[in-house]
Write a structure and sequence with these properties.
heterodimer, A: about 110 residues, mainly beta, Immunoglobulin-like, seven-stranded mixed sheet, 11 strands, about 0% helix, B: about 120 residues, six-stranded mixed sheet, five-stranded antiparallel sheet
């Protein structure tokens, strides 16, 4: 049973560029949440997708957008990258948007130069 | 913004000793969860305690929850060098909309635990 997978593992971009990160949820899970973790900080909630719609959103600008596909996989897109977007981006999956345990992927390390 | 504050920020102990980490939060919750993170990689779920529970055990882990004080503690007994990691508490609060309950996790800043062999 595959856990949560994310791609790519590492990514280097320059300011102003756009990036797309991908996540496949754990088998049997239909909800995907995205978190941003800056160095030395705890993860911060970006948004959550369930039934292909954004259901909740954290305090992040519109430059951060996402999508969920019919197979429950998800993408996180960030436009007009800033230096401050450099972080570890974590994807978590769960069942039906419940508040129970979320299963996290290994993360994508984004560096913006 | 972070919901919780964790204390201490860093903890250094010898193998065999117990490690205690504390977490405080500000608003009402459905449950509180503890996660572990090695070397800035993915988070591993350790234990979940619901708001109507006061104590929970899992192997060498013991978690307590005091909702009146809005605080929780994680105790790792007989620590091992392999327990070296960052530990995060996360609170979960359900939001009900359209007949479905949605939840998200709000994390604290974490405690860096170093266990020396």
């Amino acid at each position: 049973d595959a856990g949560v997978t994310q791609s790519p593992t590492h990514l280097i971009k320059t300011r102003g560029q756009q990036v797309t990160l991908r996540c496949s949820p754990k088998s049997g899970h239909d909800t995907v949440s995205w978190y941003q973790q800056a160095l030395g900080q705890g993860p911060q909630f970006i948004f959550q997708y369930y039934e292909e719609e954004e259901r909740q959103r954290g305090n992040f600008p519109d430059r951060f957008s996402g999508h969920q596909f019919p197979n429950y996989s998800s993408e996180l897109n960030v436009n007009a990258l800033l230096l401050g977007d450099s972080a570890l981006y974590l994807c978590a999956s769960s069942r039906q948007a419940y508040t129970d345990t979320q299963y996290f992927g290994p993360g994508t390390r984004l560096t913006v130069l | 913004s972070q919901q919780g504050e964790e204390d201490p920020q860093a903890l250094s102990i010898q193998e065999g000793e117990n490690a205690t980490m504390n977490c405080s939060y500000k608003t009402s919750i459905n449950n509180l969860q503890w996660y572990r993170q090695n070397s800035g990689r993915g988070l591993v779920h350790l234990i979940l305690i619901r708001s109507n529970e006061r104590e929970k055990h899992s192997g060498r882990l013991r978690v307590t929850l005091d909702t009146s004080k809005k605080s929780s503690s994680l105790l790792i007994t007989a620590s091992r060098a392999a327990d070296t990691a960052s530990y995060f508490c996360a609170t979960a609060k359900a939001i009900n909309a359209g007949g479905t309950s949605y939840g998200k996790l709000t994390f604290g800043q974490g405690t860096i635990l170093t266990v020396h062999p």
